[in-house]
Specification:
CATH topology of the largest domain: TIM Barrel
CATH class of the largest domain: Alpha Beta
Helix content: 25-40%
Mean pLDDT: 95
Shape: globular
CATH superfamily of the largest domain: Metal-dependent hydrolases
CATH architecture of the largest domain: Alpha-Beta Barrel
Bound molecules: zinc ion
Number of domains: 2
Low-confidence stretches: 444-448
């Protein structure tokens, strides 16, 4: 009898690894790691304090959200049906100038609960005061990749201050735990000077961390950049030395064939955010062409203010449908590939595929159980199609990260949901009436 910490019995296991789909499986967890993943009939007998009955459920790797701004849950629904530049400049940036550190903490914690409830176990975040996001993720029990937002918008001093803050947070968190990882987060080419981007590259190299940026999201901004520099955004990233396997580029909508070749050559990773791209009418990225070129593409929700949900099941469905519509071909982005993008490819995009993204012995025990005893999931002829086209985030029954059960029978165990909802709502309403806390240079930039 082998002694472990947790056992899940009788489930169908979608390993997303070499073993593929395992029917009537068992998963054993010890010290936060997967000790055994395989068929019940072949498994040794395990003894554990926690035994979960997985019958009627699919066990799969926790979903990986490659691009979000968790604290923006506070802005959910506050400015709707506006183009990206108007949305940012007229509503979001002025509101962000009023944010206090505690607002970011509660906004991020609210998002962590939403992510747990819809099966996300690891998220890649870009925002200010990322130490508050780390605090929320640690309390909720999620795994996260923090990218401190850096922007100069023509004001060198602001860029210097934000880069310094990003480096400070990177030093504080990088390599300290397997639950919190760090990247640097220069916002975009339209909001960061080339000089600042060069400095970001130098610091990222020194710190040995990746870089997370918004790339070619808006047609107008991409065209502006081309008219100023005479080159594409991807070309410019090459010029400042940022193209490489540790660059995570969100969106990548307005890119050329040449850009795709360059991205593939340098091993750039892409975060595809179909819902946000549709909502802000930013355009439809050429995911099929990126995949055909060999680029690794993960999925993201983008922030809750431009989505307005963090449900990765919904994102998987839109990810597939939008590409089929774009190429006029239903064979584009089949369901299995979309599940890969939400799990193992997402992990690859974040450089974490050695730890997460598939259920294989030795990897972290980041597992979700999807309850398939639901009318909208019967019958299951194809498990990938069921997950992408029929399942919803609310079908997730149990969530485990590092072997710790964060949610069981849809009850979140790590945080007081009612209290967080109350506090986050209070913070969001207070923000609308509060005066800006931005000073000096930030006020000038934001014109507030
Ligand atoms: Zn974004």
């Amino acid at each position: 009898m082998l002694r472990v910490d947790l056992v899940i019995r009788g489930c169908m296991i979608l390993t997303m690894g070499e073993a593929g789909l395992v029917r009537d499986g068992v998963i054993a967890v010890k010290d936060g790691l997967l000790a055994y993943v395989g068929r019940m009939i072949e498994a040794p007998s395990f003894e554990a304090d926690t035994i979960i009955d997985g019958s009627g459920k699919i066990a799969m790797p926790g979903l990986v959200n490659c691009h979000t701004h968790a604290a923006m849950s506070l802005f959910r629904g506050v400015a709707e049906d506006k183009p990206l530049d108007v949305w940012l400049r007229e509503t979001i940036w002025p509101l962000e100038s009023k944010l206090r550190r505690e607002d970011i903490y509660y906004g991020a914690l609210l998002s962590c609960i939403e992510m747990i409830r819809s099966g996300t176990t690891c998220f890649s975040d870009m925002y200010f005061h990322e130490d508050m996001v780390a605090r929320a993720a640690m309390e909720a029990g999620l795994r996260c990749v923090l990218s401190s937002g850096i922007i100069d918008a023509g004001h060198k001093t602001l860029g210097r201050i934000l880069l310094r803050e990003a480096v400070k947070i990177a030093r504080e968190y990088h390599g300290v735990s397997d639950r919190v990882f760090v990247m640097l987060g220069p916002h975009a080419l339209y909001s960061c000077s080339l000089d600042l981007l060069r400095k970001v590259r130098e610091r990222a190299e020194e710190l040995n961390v990746g870089v997370h940026i918004h790339l070619a999201e808006s047609e107008r901004d991409s065209a502006n950049i081309r008219s100023i520099h005479g080159r594409s955004e991807v070309d410019l990233l090459g010029e400042v030395g940022l193209l490489g396997p540790r660059l995570l580029a969100a969106h990548c909508i307005h890119i050329s064939d040449g850009d795709i070749v360059l991205m593939a050559k340098h091993g750039v990773k892409v975060a595809y955010n179909p819902v946000s791209n549709m909502k802000l009418a930013s355009g439809i990225p050429r995911i099929k062409d990126l995949l055909d070129a060999g680029v690794v593409v993960g999925l993201g929700t983008d922030g809750p203010a431009s989505n307005n949900s963090l449900d990765m099941f919904e994102t998987m469905k839109f990810a597939a449908l939008l590409q089929k519509a774009r190429y006029g071909d239903p064979r584009v982005l089949p369901a299995k590939k979309v599940v890969e993008m939400a799990t193992i490819d997402g992990a690859r995009a974040l450089g974490l595929d050695g730890l997460i993204g598939s259920l294989e012995a030795g990897k972290k025990a980041d597992i979700i159980l999807v309850d398939i005893n639901k009318p909208h999931l019967k019958p299951i002829h194809d498990v990938y199609a069921a997950l992408v086209y029929s399942a919803r985030g609310s079908d997730v029954d149990t969530v485990i990260v590092d072997g710790r059960v964060l949610m069981e029978n849809r009850r979140v165990k790590t945080v007081d949901e009612a209290e967080v909802m109350r506090r986050a709502e209070e913070k969001a309403y207070n923000l609308l009436s509060r005066r800006s806390v931005a000073r000096g240079i930030a006020r000038k930039i934001l014109k507030i």
